[in-house]
């Protein structure tokens, strides 16, 4: 155990250019399109919203030639190669299905859907139509995640025993209405907890047990949760999410001969430090090329590469992992007593 591996992540500027249609021009869509415009060769060619004026304003901001006052218009645009679904969690399933039914490949914002049943249905539809589908869990495609991936696979930590991951933001009360509204699949878990849960799945693989405790708001969505998971080898994950206050949002992967500490926020471009079993710093990866959401370009580049290669899913983040994460969050919600209308 001496040197952390260099990331193998391709330069997003080298990804083939595909033509993007943006479904729901909100905050995250603006960050995504800014990352595409500034850090890739991707083309933003169309925007769809529930109202034409909003779509046109967004399209003009990013130089997209087409704007639609309906999502149906967007997904049926013959000049669009792939749809990016950026609507609230509660709408991901319907909007992704609309795009797939129209024959369009889809990149769906995280959390992928409200629940695993919706996720499985989208995966089955994409497979039946031989269409590309991927969850926009941007962290999975970042360079420092590939450092972690290689370090774990190469046995630099010995046998992995424990994963820690935490994500807390001051988003309730007083934050976006969608986070407090059960009808919009609100709560900390799908918005914030998805990052620690997905990170634990990334390192540990499938969970064999899940235990959760948490607190609910007066409207019945989760304000915070603490989750423990195990995998088949007995390794454990200790995970936390909260929308009540800002936490360090760091992560660690502990093994029998070493430890990785991932700086906060662990799901954005950050440092990775390697320690030996005695807690002595051995090496560190500090090369960060992108500031925060500029790194959304990596997931777009992965989708573009897959699309150009004729792949229907990403090898870095296969659909079975997305479904596993959704199923894990279903179990957490069941233990906390959180249920969304219409489920």
Question: How much helix, percentage-wise, in residues?
Answer: 25-40%
Please name the fourth-level CATH homologous superfamily of the largest domain: Dihydrodipicolinate Reductase, domain 2
What's the architecture of the largest domain, going by CATH?
2-Layer Sandwich
The SS-based structural class is alpha/beta
The CATH class label of the largest domain is: Alpha Beta
- Which series of helices and strands comes N to C? EHEHEHEHEHEHEHEEEEEEEHH
As for the CATH topology of the largest domain, it is Dihydrodipicolinate Reductase, domain 2
Quickly count the helices. Answer: 9
Mind telling me the C-alpha Rg?
20 Å
Number of spatially distinct domains: 2
- What order do the strands of the largest sheet run in, or round the barrel if closed? 8-9-10-7-11-12-13-14
Care to count the β-strands? 14
Low-confidence residue ranges? none
Fraction of residues in β-strands: 15-25%
Shape: globular
Reported for the largest beta sheet, the result is: 8 strands, mixed
InterPro entries: Gfo/Idh/MocA-like_OxRdtase_N, Gfo/Idh/MocA_domain, GFO_IDH_MocA-like_dom, NAD(P)-bd_dom_sf
Protein name: Dehydrogenase
Domain GFO/IDH/MocA-like oxidoreductase: 148-260
Pfam families: GFO_IDH_MocA, GFO_IDH_MocA_C3
């Amino acid at each position: 155990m001496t040197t952390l591996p260099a990331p193998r992540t391709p330069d997003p500027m080298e990804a083939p250019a595909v033509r993007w249609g943006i479904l729901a021009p909100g905050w995250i869509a603006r960050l995504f399109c800014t990352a595409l415009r500034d850090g890739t060769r991707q083309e933003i060619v169309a925007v769809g919203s529930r109202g034409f004026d909003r779509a046109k304003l967004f399209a003009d901001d990013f130089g997209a030639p087409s704007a639609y006052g309906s999502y149906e218009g967007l997904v049926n645009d013959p000049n669009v190669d792939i749809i990016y679904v950026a609507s609230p969690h509660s709408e991901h399933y319907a909007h992704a299905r609309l795009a797939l039914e129209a024959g369009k490949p889809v990149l769906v914002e995280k959390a992928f859907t409200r629940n695993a049943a919706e996720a499985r249905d989208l995966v089955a539809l994409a497979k039946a139509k031989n269409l590309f589908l991927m969850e926009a869990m941007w962290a999975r495609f970042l360079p420092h995640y590939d450092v972690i991936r290689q370090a774990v696979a190469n046995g630099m930590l010995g046998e992995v025993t424990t994963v820690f991951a935490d994500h807390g933001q001051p988003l309730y009360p007083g934050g976006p209405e969608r986070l407090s509204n059960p009808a919009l699949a609100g709560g900390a878990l799908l918005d914030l907890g998805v990052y620690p849960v997905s990170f634990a799945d990334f390192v540990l693989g499938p969970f064999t047990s899940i235990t959760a405790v948490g607190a609910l708001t007066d409207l019945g969505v989760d304000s915070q949760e603490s989750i423990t998971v195990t995998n088949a080898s007995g390794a454990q994950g200790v995970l936390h999410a909260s929308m009540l206050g800002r936490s360090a949002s760091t992560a660690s992967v502990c093994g029998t001969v070493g430890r990785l500490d991932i700086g906060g926020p662990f799901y954005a471009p950050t440092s990775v430090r390697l320690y030996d079993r005695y807690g002595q710093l051995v090496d560190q990866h500090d090369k960060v090329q992108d500031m925060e959401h500029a790194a959304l370009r990596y997931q777009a580049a992965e989708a573009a590469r897959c699309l150009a290669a004729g792949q229907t899913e990403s090898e870095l983040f296969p659909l079975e992992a997305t479904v596993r994460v959704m199923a894990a969050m279903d179990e957490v919600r069941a233990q906390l007593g959180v249920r969304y209308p219409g489920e």
